[in-house]
Structures are given as structure tokens and as C-alpha cells.
Amino acid sequence: MSSLTVQNIQGSASSSNTINVASGHKISGAAGSIIAPGQVIQTVYSQITSSETTTSNSYVDTGLHVTITPKYSSSKILIRASVCLYQPNNAGAASVTVKRGSTNLSSASYGFGYIYIASGGGHVNQTPIEFLDSPSTTSATTYRVQISTGVGVNLGTAYISVNGTPSTITVMEIAQ
Question: Angle at the Cα of 86 (from 81 to 89), degrees rounded to 5?
Fold first, then answer.
């Protein structure tokens, strides 16, 4: 077996700058050495099943968080979460968001999910969250799920993961 050492390989202008690999052949390399756009580079997951609560009308941290250190500053981070929100009060609310550091990733005033109970109380909602972030860093980055009782107003008590129902967050580094 022989080796070819080069700094760059590029297709010719006559082939639209494309390099073709013949059918039945493949390019191989050590794990992580060949990265294609759209490829998942790494995944980090966290789950909680213990109930957490707040009476704050500002977002507060929960125990649901993950830290990822992107390999490339150009990567996107795909965030997927499933949060069990519970509101036991009449005229009560619960809201959930995800923050990267101090940055709220939701542009909506009530975060990624919100429930309001006018009467009857006791509403549970499994709230799905999906967001594609561009942190532009290779430093350790923490994504935190936060809850509140309703931004700007105090509307009872907000819970996540009530009665052992899991809440989860998964982040995936996506090559660009």
C-alpha cells in the first residue's frame, strides 16, 4: 500500500470543482477524520425524573442541562428537549425556555412552551422543544432548561417532571 501526502485536493474547473469517487470505492479514515456537512459529530443527553418547582415569575434554572464542547466553531447545535410542565393552580401558568449561557434562545415572550389554567387546575403538558443554534465557538457551552410561573406576573407554582415523568434534553453538534 502506498501513501499520498498533500495539503489540499480540489476538483478541476471542467468538473465543476467536484471530486468523484468511483462506484464501489470509498474514502475511509480514522473516526472523526472525515466530516461531511450535515453529519452529527457528537451528541450529549440528559434526563431528570425528580420533580422541580418554582413560584418565580422570572426564569429559573432546573437540574435539566447539558454541556457540549463543539469541535468546530462553524458547527450548528441542534437542541431537542421534551419537558413535562405541570400547573396545579387555578389561574396559574407555567412557562419553559432554554438558555445558552445568559442568552434565552426563544424569541417568544413566553419561551418555548406555556400553559395557563383559568380554572380547575392540575394541567400537565409534555412540551417538545426543537431549536438550531449557532454558538460560533469551540468552548464548552451549557444549555439549561428554565421554568417560570409566567413571565412578568406571578401565576402560582410551575413544576417540571411531576410524578416521575421524565424531562429530557439532547444536543447534537452538526457539521456545516
Answer: 155
- Per-residue pLDDT tens for 35-50? 888 999 999 999 999 9
Q: What is the dihedral of CA 53, 55, 59, 64, to 10 degrees?
A: 0
The full set of domain ranges for the chain reads 32-174
Reading phi first (left if > 0) and then psi (alpha if -120 to 50, else beta), residue 38 is in: left
Tens-place pLDDT, residues 65-112: 999 999 999 999 999 999 999 988 888 889 999 999 999 999 988 899
Q: What angle do CA 68, 72, 77 make, to 5 degrees?
A: 50
**30-44 burial by CB neighbour count: b if 16+ within 10 A, else e?**
eeeeeeeeeeeeeee
Asked if residue 151 has pLDDT above 80, the reply is no
Instruction: Break the chain down into helix, strand, coil percent, rounded to 5.
Output: 5, 45, 50
CATH for the stretch 32-174: 2.60.120.760
In this prediction the pTM is 0.84
Distance CA(160)–CA(82), nearest Å, equals 10
